[in-house]
Design brief:
This protein has 2 domains: 158 residues, Lyase, Ornithine Decarboxylase, Chain A, domain 1, CATH 2.40.37; 171 residues, TIM Barrel. 28% of the residues lie in helices and 25% in strands. The chain has 12 helices and 21 strands. Helix 2 packs parallel to helix 9, helix 5 crosses helix 6 and helix 8 runs parallel beside helix 9. About 2% of the residues have low confidence.
Length: 419
Amino acid sequence: MHHFAYRDGALFAEDVDLTALADAVGTPAYVYSEATLRRHFRVFADAFAGADALVAYSVKANSNIAVLKTLAGEGAGADVVSGGELQRAIAAGIAPEKIVFSGVGKTGDEIAAGLDARILQFNVESAAELAAIDEIARARNAQAPIALRINPDVAAGGHEKISTGKKEDKFGVPWAEARDLYAKARAMKGVAVKGVDLHIGSQIDDLAPFEAAFTKIGGLIADLRADGCAIETLDLGGGLGIPYGEGAVPPHPDDYAEMIKRVTAPLNVKLIFEPGRMIAGNAGILLSRVLYVKDGEAKKFLIIDAGMNDLVRPAMYDAFHEIWPVVESSGGETVYDVVGPVCESSDRFAKDRKMAPLKAGDLVAIMSAGAYGAVQASQYNTRALVPEVLVNGDQYAIIRRRPTYEDITALEATPDWLP
């Protein structure tokens, strides 16, 4: 459920008329519903009520500090994958003891920052990274709490580019090497073995791969404890999908939680979850205006002012997003390719999409754009990053402004030898 709905034929975000909002802030623009963010977090957290669990929101899904502050107020922790995300999470008021640091390429400075902040744990993805953390921690007279990310070789995810649990993926420690690497970690003075971590993919719409991976990791925990490891935490990652409007409907968090409680009950561990898309995805839209309607020889093109630099998911993942007219029409249906202005043939949001007839100047809402939208945006073609707007009831605030041309070029410099 989200808080975008029609009233008398006009689309609203909570109690804000999107037509009036577009006139005020311009298009394209991301619009987020605070009520939806809060509701989705509560649905997930409440599913694990009574369990020893930390919901560490995946900052990479939507890292705007206002979004993070909203979730921090609900009690969220954070899963970060860079030093910048760590700084954002702390700036938003998320306690360091609720932060886990994931990612395959942590730099020395990022590891040091995590140590200085006293985060909950580092999720370690390779033997080389483990050695680096040990060395940096010892140099600082510290001990890094770690979990090894174990690759269970379970394939899952809505697209090959977001499946992370197979043995050939870049993520995680191979299953066959797990016990040996834990033994090496136990002997290191700069690390403290705390847990086990896994993450098998994103936009997963079936509980079966989750259950297979989580059951397999339970057996590993028993082996590690027999080896002398005091396993206290089990980070099960994220990956629970959302309904984008096409295809399978993902499991409800209650069903996900019931399965996890059943599988992990004998393990006596603190559970850590890293949901991102499930919380933020349907809490946001990309608001855009029609520039032109172009009649091709075989089809019509709806050319809008949002481009693939603003929302790259359709170009990168062939992702499906519903596209709603901001003002409803009863004029039948027209088939469009919905495209943007970027000078790339892949700048397309929908192909052969049946929609109400639209004309230049009309507004559309690209739905389910709250996750992996603004965070992946670029300024390709020197197109300014679009503003982000947070709605709360009948109020709204611009939480990231649209940069000017001067802002875009401020970091650039011309060498003295050029005229």
